[in-house]
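Input chain follows. Return structure tokens only.
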Amino acid sequence: MILRSNFFASIIAVFALAVVPSAAFAVACKTVPADAPVSPAEQAYRDGDGKRAMELYHSELAANPQDLRLVYGFVQAALSQGSDDEARSVLGQHIPATSAWILIAQSQYALRQGDFDRARQYAFAAVKADVCNAHAHLQAAEMLDFSAMYAQSKKQRLIARTLDQSAPATYWAWLRYQPADVRLKEMKRMADDTRTPAKWREFAAKAVGRLEARTAGGGHNCHLVSANASSKTTMTALMGDGANVRAWGLSVKVNDHATTVLLDTGASGFVLNHAAAEKSGLKMVERGKYGGIGDNGPVNISYAYADRIRIGDMEFSDCLVRVDDRRSVAGTQGLIGTDVFSEKLVTLDYPMREFRIAPLPGTAEQSNSINTDGSSGSDAETAEPTDAYDGPELKDYLNVYLASSKVILPLLLNSKPETMMMDTGSDGTLFDRSKAKEFTSVKLDSSYNGAIEGVSGKVKDVYLTGQVYIQMGPIAQYQNGAMAVNFNGPDEPQLAGLLGSSFLYNLVVDIDYRDARVRFTYDPLHGHNAVVHH
């Protein structure tokens, strides 16, 4: 588990060395200019050809085995291809080592394995080992983001850009903090430049439409127009087969059209199916792709504007949402990710069937905007970043990791430390098949094939696990015969799986995105628990 006091102490100790004016780096460090030569291996990686990059790095390492930057390059390319075993093999030949390059590679490998705490330790050690290494600062920034230390991560990224003007990663690091008009200009340039790698041209072209839509007419920022700073509304049971509740949703109004959407901590933004969007009279602006759990890959979506969205007692105006071209979105008319309310304290009170939104702890000024389009990174409209609040009001909360919209929980599975995503859009606990083999038995059960459906369609091959004892802070449950699938993507942190709504059924869950905190409360006399208890 993460100890917040130790976490802050580690940041202060390491970044006292690193957070100095950028001008000082220009004097003390040898910086990399924009026109610095690039090796064929690195160029292949920048062009998105990870497989070719691995081959070239392998050859360069054979010729220069003492060049530890080549080890870092190979590990990075191998992880981009899902070749974790090859990354581990090459990395293992250079451990232990105090080189920043090896420490960065160790951090990236640990992150791939879902070991966020160890990845953070390696990243901070890399900065301490070589304060002039731009990639060490970038890796530290990524780890800081996971713990909502956004002001610190911004400093690290801007230092990285000062140190290295050549690497695309430092360019993206700089771009995410620029005003919308600057980002739009840069995205247009990239989309039109045939020298830009295809994957970045595609990304830039998609971003241009959203940025143009936002900047036209004052930014199109979805904002609160009602007087309520807090709200509560009933959670609606979404039924599965027979009388079983498969998930929970919210009744919302979009341009005065009432609809029910899935309440989903595992998704981002506000998404409607095509029929609901038409009935709501949304204004379409752009097309794109969106993905999630399922075997069918990303699905076609459009972006559209809603004049008004009403959720409980709160009404928001001028909101950019996504429209899924299919008849249903994960079996519903749409979904709303709880990250939409990342500027509020979000409460899912399952025993009372109640969804609440309230001001966050602390006295800092709080935003009345919500992020309905699910954008992030260089394409998001962000205020000046701040670091996580650590006041006494949060003493009962668990520290978690935030990966974009995902809430990642550190826990124990049969006493083995692991990480899982909290996903209220799923009815049950779902394990990753490869990860599950590390702490329980796993066997294929074809009778469940197609039983799991997510944003990207149905999952074909489903396995069942043996008994798993899940311990998460003060909460512990046994799971037996849980489903296991190929849950993780090839270039993502390898999580043990997800905790669905059935695991949370008797709990009150408070989510604080601003501070990367979650509180789980069980009261045997609260709501439906009292009926079961007696």
